[in-house]
Fold these 2 entries.
Entry 1:
Amino acid sequence: MSSLSERMARETIVEIARRLHARGWLAAADGNISLRLSADNILITPSGVHKGFITVDEICRITIDNGVIEGKPSTERLMHLAVYKNAPKAVAVVHAHPPAATAWTIACPEMSELPADCLSEVILAAGRIPFVPYAQPGTQQMGDHLLPFLPDCRLLILARHGALAWGESLSEAYNGIERLEHASVTLAHAKMIGGLTRLPADEVTRLRAMRAKMDGRTL
Ligand SMILES: [Zn+2]
């Protein structure tokens, strides 16, 4: 461990991993978290380790070109590298398996994004939340399928798999997972109770225009 700031970065990754597990947004060794320390130096969680019990010394280090410097990094790291290469503002990536968000892609494979135009807060805080087409685990597809959505979208739901959020800080990326799963639960409840109703089209247009004037961060 080379510096105090890296130590703090590792501790924050561990804290986020435990929170994701505590919220039920991943099971056992699922999910991965990364943080870019410099242009070519990325911390990432290890492969095959339960994220509820992870320790700072288990965090791995990789390069932007998928070189392994330290540890046995996540097999899903190609998603993280695709984000860092195609979204220059990205400093952190959080990938988890939140159940409600994932369930939308199983129940509604014909949809291309979460029906966020039912909820004003989602439009303002996150913009569109697309469904990324299915990719076979551990393959280059996992990174390639993200490319059409980068750098415009910071919140992505991965078909039949989970969700990914990136941000200019770890807290922004974590907030993104929280935001999309909360919206997914709310919309699922609405669908079960009686069906989805959209905001009026002109109101959606106004809200999207307000979002466009913001700096793109997830709130
Ligand atoms: Zn995964």
Note: Residues 30, 76, 95, 97, 161-162 surround zinc ion (CB under 6 Å).
Entry 2:
Amino acid sequence: MKKTFMAHVTVFSSLAMGAVLAISHGAANAADAQKGKAAYVKHGCWQCHGFVGQGGIAGPKLAPEPIPLPAMSAFVRNSRGPMPPYMEAVLPNDDLADIHAYLQSIPKAADYKSIPLLNPK
Ligand code: HEC
């Protein structure tokens, strides 16, 4: 009796795991870094944040390791500070998700300790 119960639990949890994997996989596929790069340029984010989100005179650094998409979306839609807000009619949610994927795809700079020229003996 106990054994069958455990078997059911195992089957159920692997099904649940599968569903979670399927959902996160779908989300990862939906946002496209390549399209995001184009959207980042088209919407002019680069003018203040730099072409690879490195930050500029007007805007702070956005990449690598951008803030999570929900936080980014909340900021971009509702900014009341020096950055103009971007309404959905101007910057669709899909473009914003792609921009986030682009910023996420930007690699971190190498650790200076791994660069021989910066570590003279
Ligand atoms: C006119 C210059 C300008 C443009 C264009 C611009 N930004 Fe910004 N952005 C800023 C400034 C300035 C801040 C800091 C604002 C603040 O702290 O209130 C900022 C902040 C942000 C932040 C918050 C960063 C953080 O760590 O809190 C995000 C995310 C962001 N911008 C994304 C974007 C995206 C995406 C675009 C293009 C759709 C864009 N910005 C276009 C000037 C700009």
Note: Confidence is low (pLDDT under 50) at residues 8-28.
